[in-house]
Specification:
The protein is mostly helical. The protein has helices spanning 2-10, 20-32, 40-56, 65-98, 105-121, 124-135, 140-147, 151-171. The protein is built from 8 helices and no strands.
Length: 175
């Protein structure tokens, strides 16, 4: 009986790090957090992955795996909402570009040239991050992981690059 409780608290040591009760709790937290039914399995897998990564990194198992998994699930639900809002904003921006009352073809070409010149004037590290964020649509975390630098550095370079590009566009009286 004690052995079963210990296994239940830490998951199956040789297989699934979450037992059935913990998985149900994670699903419930995700669902209550607004994650659609179709994405629940992915969320559960993310929790499993983080628990396995924690163990592979040499960290000891959380004292209360069930509580830890619920907290991770709640963070995943928040991340899901942020991504959804980001996609909605991107859709709105794309829709505004398609509106006929937007800039004429000539204005659009001038803006493209001015942006290209502004990008050329940026330091390589800033240009790289700006392109990855806005043209490749990578999240800050993804850029940090891919480049092997802290997220704060990505944010700082991105902020500086946007400010410099905006100033350049104002100087050229493009915007």
């Amino acid at each position: 009986m004690l052995r079963r409780k210990a296994r239940r608290a830490q998951g199956d040591q040789h297989g699934d790090p979450l037992d059935a009760d913990q998985e149900r709790r994670v699903r419930a937290v995700l669902a209550l957090g607004g994650v659609p039914q179709a994405d629940l399995l992915d969320g559960v897998q993310q929790v499993r992955l983080r628990l396995l990564e924690r163990a592979a990194g040499g960290q000891e198992a959380p004292r209360d795996v069930s509580a830890w998994a619920a907290v991770v699930a709640s963070h995943l639900a928040m991340d899901w909402h942020r991504a959804k809002r980001r996609q909605e904003r991107l859709g709105e921006r794309l829709a505004s570009l398609r509106q006929p009352d937007h800039a004429s073809g000539e204005d659009s070409r001038l803006l493209s040239v001015a942006v290209a010149r502004g990008l050329d004037e940026l330091p390589d590290a800033q240009r790289q991050i700006l392109v990855l964020r806005f043209y490749a649509d990578l999240p800050v975390r993804g850029i940090a992981e891919e480049l092997g630098i802290p997220e704060g550095t990505v944010k700082s370079r991105l902020h500086t690059a946007v400010r410099a590009l905006r100033a350049r566009l104002h100087e050229d009286e493009v915007v």
